[in-house]
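To illustrate this point, we now present one chain and its tokenised fold:
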Amino acid sequence: MKNASPNIAKALKNLRAERGLSLSKTAELTGVSKAMLGQIELGQSSPTIATLWKIATGFNVAFSTFLEDEVSTFFEPELYPFKETSAFEKIDAQMRVTPLIPFDPKLKTDLFKIELGPGILSKSSPHEVGVIEHVIVFQGILTLTIDQKEYQIKHGESLRFSADITHMYENRGKESVIFHNLIHYPR
């Protein structure tokens, strides 16, 4: 059994406490089993990226809520050091999500570097209405399926889309695909 990141466990506990939710209600809200939620909170299990997206979507919070200790609450010029390691490198060895700029409550955005290994498919549940994603590919060819329509995004290309529908990121190639994902949350 994999150990959860302390940030993930703490964030989940805090969100449940702030909203006065039981594990059963949280399971209904997120679509993640009560048992899995309990294991995550106790630090006994690490969620996959897909599971963590479900939790973030269910709570209607930024994905990076679970990755960062503190959130920037001001808008001053600030340098964010690039972190070579991600909270998920040990969880999903073939998909790495690295926060580049933490969630900013004024701008309501997250910026991630995502690396998909060869043959990897990551399905994302619909986000809250109004969430917009911007995908910029830096290496390889990303197949992005949005509501059953496929887009091939190559190195140097980008795509913006409404993320309130089912969407999937897929690497059909033999080399890793690396892209940035800028997510804008309406609330």
User: Anything to note?
Assistant: Strands lie at 95-104, 109-116, 121-124, 132-139, 141-146, 149-154, 158-162, 167-170, 177-184. Residues 137 and 156 are 6 Å apart (CA to CA).
